[in-house]
Specification:
The chain is of the alpha/beta class and 297 residues long. The chain contains eight helices and eight strands; from the N terminus they run αααβββαβαββαβαβα. Bound molecules: zinc ion (ZN).
Length: 297
């Protein structure tokens, strides 16, 4: 073999091997999710009725302006009277008949309005996660089910947590989609909450649908991330309950263990330095793989 053809063979071999090497290492862009979360948390406190809340709405509106975004506006009946609230639904169409919903909440707590509570982990991290997931879904018709991203308002209590003072956005949307028949199209509802934590330990929420928990466990295994998922069981009241109650297979992917003795949860210490790109990469890998597995089911 002449030297030039030897080099050409080598180059061809390297070119052939490159995509394999790349796909073996391909991970979700948790760095981008963190960047989005940082921009979103920088808005500051965004409790219902605050100027920060309006900025948060504007941020989502502007970010998704070229996507199929729906603003679901409603009035919540709260302990402080009627409050205008706003869910955002961003739709990415698929070839298969049916919908997978990925959801988060984006607002912060009204009752924390007198401290600088920015909810880096509680609201911003998962908003950033869903924005980075949108980057992967945009610009093509998905091979599987449609994926709808939902950004709920009013997850947090206005005064103190109860079944009537919490989860305003999800209760409103589940009821609305129950009335108009949309719920029947939803194959799975996957809720992300507080999973930007550097010290990631996602609980197995006890009311969540068994097959979805099993599928997500299988997804985590693919990336050798099992240790971050479902090592401990805990019942959590969250935005998935209104959907579960209406028969939609649902899972709450939540890490309620945040800081030493939970010191960062609902305190001014819930700041960007407590969350990481590494955790958001794990989340994104496992969420994308879970979507793939739901489509195969
Ligand atoms: Zn919270």
């Amino acid at each position: 073999m002449r030297l030039s053809s030897c080099i050409r063979s080598l180059v061809l071999l390297l070119l052939a091997a490159a995509p394999l090497a790349l796909s073996a290492q391909a991970h979700f862009n948790g760095g981008k999710a963190l960047e989005y979360a940082r921009e979103f948390a920088a808005i500051g406190p965004r409790w219902p009725t605050s100027p920060g809340h309006m900025k948060a709405e504007q941020f989502l509106r502007s970010h998704f302006q070229h996507d199929k975004v729906e603003e679901d506006t409603f009035t919540a009946d709260t302990p402080i009277g009627p409050v205008a609230m706003q869910n955002f639904i961003v739709r990415f169409p698929g070839k298969k008949d049916g919908v997978i919903v990925l959801a988060t909440h984006y607002e912060t707590n009204y009752w924390l309005k007198n401290i600088n509570f920015v909810g880096a982990n509680d609201g911003a991290a998962t908003t950033g996660l869903l924005m980075a997931i949108a980057d992967q879904l945009r610009g093509k018709t998905l091979d599987g089910y449609s994926v709808w991203l939902v950004f709920f308002d009013g997850e947090e209590a206005i005064q103190s947590w109860s079944s009537s003072d919490s989860t305003y956005g999800s209760r409103h949307l589940a009821a609305k989609w129950g009335r108009d028949g949309t719920l029947g199209k939803i194959k799975a509802f996957v809720l992300a909450d507080m999973i930007g934590d550097k010290d990631l330990d996602i609980q197995r929420e006890t009311k969540s649908t068994d097959w979805l928990v099993a599928l997500m466990r299988q997804a985590a295994k693919k990336f050798h991330d099992e240790r971050y998922f479902f090592q401990r069981e805990e019942a959590v009241e969250d935005d998935h309950l209104a959907f579960l109650a209406r028969g939609v297979p649902s899972i709450d992917v939540i890490d309620l263990d945040y800081g030493p003795n939970n010191a960062y949860h609902h305190t001014a210490q819930d700041t960007m330095d407590k969350i990481s790109a590494a955790s958001l990469t794990i989340d994104g890998d496992v969420f994308m793989e879970t979507i793939r597995l739901i489509n195969l089911r």
